[in-house]
Design brief:
By secondary structure, this protein is α/β, with parallel strands linked by helices. The protein has 2 domains: 6-248, Thiolase/Chalcone synthase (Peroxisomal Thiolase, Chain A, domain 1), CATH 3.40.47.10; 259-409, Thiolase/Chalcone synthase (Peroxisomal Thiolase, Chain A, domain 1), CATH 3.40.47.10. The chain has helices spanning 21-30, 61-66, 69-84, 108-121, 133-137, 143-150, 165-179, 197-206, 243-248, 274-288, 306-320, 332-335, 342-350, 353-356; strands spanning 6-14, 35-40, 44-49, 97-103, 156-160, 184-191, 231-232, 234-242, 255-264, 297-299, 327-329, 358-359, 383-384, 391-398, 402-409. The strands form 3 sheets. It has a 10-stranded mixed β-sheet, with helices on both faces. Strands 2-3-7 form a 3-stranded mixed β-sheet, with helices on one face.
């Protein structure tokens, strides 16, 4: 694999705080929560992060009906990313465009709906089961939905990496560019989580579902009173290119991918392992060829679960020490946990820091847990980095002990 420089030239997203990077970033700097009360089948109203994008902007109504919610999110984000990058597909070879999406789940929404309808209205008669079920639930959906919608003929697949998937999709895209498997990559992560009541029920039975009388305050990483995850939907897809290709077409470069690492805890289905998280961070730094002290900001994974937040803080404290100038923030406090989209979507909200030097805050920390009192933790108000932001480290961890770390730098010739 070559070590060609890989850059981001396009960003397309939908989030509980808006459907473009500018709107999303503005809300983060203003400290506005995107979590609201959402009706969940069989469970009542629960805190959730809900996206409100124009579903028929790039699909007709039939296509929306036939496809999946995750696929629709992916299609919207892919189109927006290409537009951001100033790319016209008519001038590109579709066989040289790869699509790599991180996911936690997909097709659950439509499957649950089919099951409920079968029991409630059709006396369990399977002849009423939708013939769209199989393409909705195969492992390569929703990446495949994007290629069908855009007419792309290059490689596509999803990367199942639990809540580390957003980072994993980006890493996969960078690797495929370096291997020469494609000349342009659509890479990132998507999630339809809130439309499937099984996700909520699973976290509730696990004792890991957030509750709070005010949904805006339900997601509260690092706070002593945190009590679980706020389930959210969303997506973020990046256009990745080799630097020489981006330069050749005069593209505006958003950031450069500097290093990455994925590893496994190998210890538990759910409980994170801080030693392996620390190892993943250190190996990503080695891959990037930098020291921990050169990292200007860390986007933490912290999900607002008691043990999860504490374990990540142990790993970060061990890597960065007590005297670090590295600033640390958290985006889930604003939008909840967007599962497969989390790594990509949380990174997006921090990318403008390369330009303005501001690190958005972590909100809802009313009573900081001493075990999470990290040096450099940015709480309540944005903080300006003393020397600007040149390097961002993005943590994203998932169930079954999968850890991913992605490091980006401000682009410099």
């Amino acid at each position: 694999m070559s070590k060609e420089r890989i850059v981001i030239t396009g960003v397309g997203l939908t989030s509980p705080l808006g459907n473009d990077l500018g709107t999303y970033r503005e809300a983060l700097l203003e400290g506005r929560s995107g979590v609201s009360s959402f009706p969940v089948r069989n469970m009542g109203d629960l805190p959730a992060g809900v996206c409100d994008f124009e579903k028929t902007k790039y699909q007709n109504r039939k296509e929306v009906r036939v496809g999946t919610r995750a696929g629709g999110i992916g299609i919207f984000c892919a189109h927006e990313a290409l537009a951001y990058a100033g790319l016209d597909l008519s001038g590109l070879d579709p066989s040289r465009i790869g699509t790599y999406l991180g996911i936690t789940e997909h097709g659950n929404v439509e499957t649950e709906t089919e099951v409920c309808q079968l029991f409630d209205h059709y006396e369990e008669e399977v002849k009423y089961w939708s013939h769209h079920h199989n393409p909705r639930t195969v492992a390569n959906n929703p990446a495949g939905e994007i290629t069908v919608n855009l007419g792309l003929t290059g490689p596509h697949y999803t990367v199942g990496a639990a809540c580390a998937a957003g980072n994993a999709g980006i890493i996969q895209g960078a690797q495929m560019l370096r291997l020469g498997e494609c000349d342009l990559a659509l890479a990132g992560g998507v999630s339809e989580s809130i439309r499937a009541y099984g996700i909520f029920a699973g976290f509730k039975s696990q004792g890991a579902l957030a509750s709070h009388e005010d949904p805006h305050k339900a997601s509260r990483p690092f706070d002593r009173g945190r009590n679980g995850i706020v389930v959210s939907e969303g997506g973020c897809i990046y256009v990745l290119e080799r630097l020489e290709d981006a330069r050749r077409r005069g593209a505006e470069i958003v950031a450069e991918i500097l290093g990455y690492r994925i590893n496994s805890d190998g210890t538990d289905y759910v409980l994170p392992n801080p030693e392996r998280q620390e190892e993943c961070i250190r190996q990503a730094l080695d891959n990037a060829g930098i020291e921990a002290g050169t990292v200007d900001m860390v986007s933490s994974h912290a999900t607002s679960t008691p043990q999860g937040d504490e374990q990540e803080c142990k790993a970060l404290r061990n890597v960065f020490g007590e005297d670090t100038k590295t600033l640390i923030n958290n985006t889930k406090s604003f939008i909840g946990h967007t599962m497969g989209a989390a790594g990509a979507l949380e990174l997006a909200g921090n990318l403008p820091s390369f330009r303005d030097g501001l690190v958005h805050a972590t909100i809802n920390v009313d009573d900081l847990d001493p075990e999470c009192a990290l040096p450099g933790l940015v709480v309540d108000e944005p903080r300006e980095s003393e020397e600007g932001v040149r390097i961002i480290l993005n943590n994203s961890f998932g169930m079954l002990g999968i850890n991913s770390v992605l490091i980006l730098k401000k682009f410099e010739d």
